[in-house]
Write a structure and sequence with these properties.
It contains one helix and four strands; from the N terminus they run E-E-E-H-E.
Amino acid sequence: MRCAFKIEKVWKSGKISIKFVPLNDIDSIDDYPTYTISSKELDLYDCESFVESLMKVYGNYNLNEQDKKQIVDNPPENITGELNLEDLVGRVIAAKTYNDKRFILKMKRIEL
């Protein structure tokens, strides 16, 4: 299932206020509840690993499996590159939910 999230606020203490919404939901993302989460459990290496770890740790539990017809107020965008949480505040970002069986492993170059 694909979803979107919106970061409302980032505190210096490492807490993040965030909203999750199913990607094809007809309701606005602003109508959904805000969750305050800790960034200590998240992978802050780059944007891709941040989105993936966010969905693994928090996103799967905060989304219900409702499938609706169209997107109205939630036009999400994909992010890539270097991560800066302050730049993501107020943006709606697309993400993919993950099951617990398969994950992409981020690693540096390994020589055998």
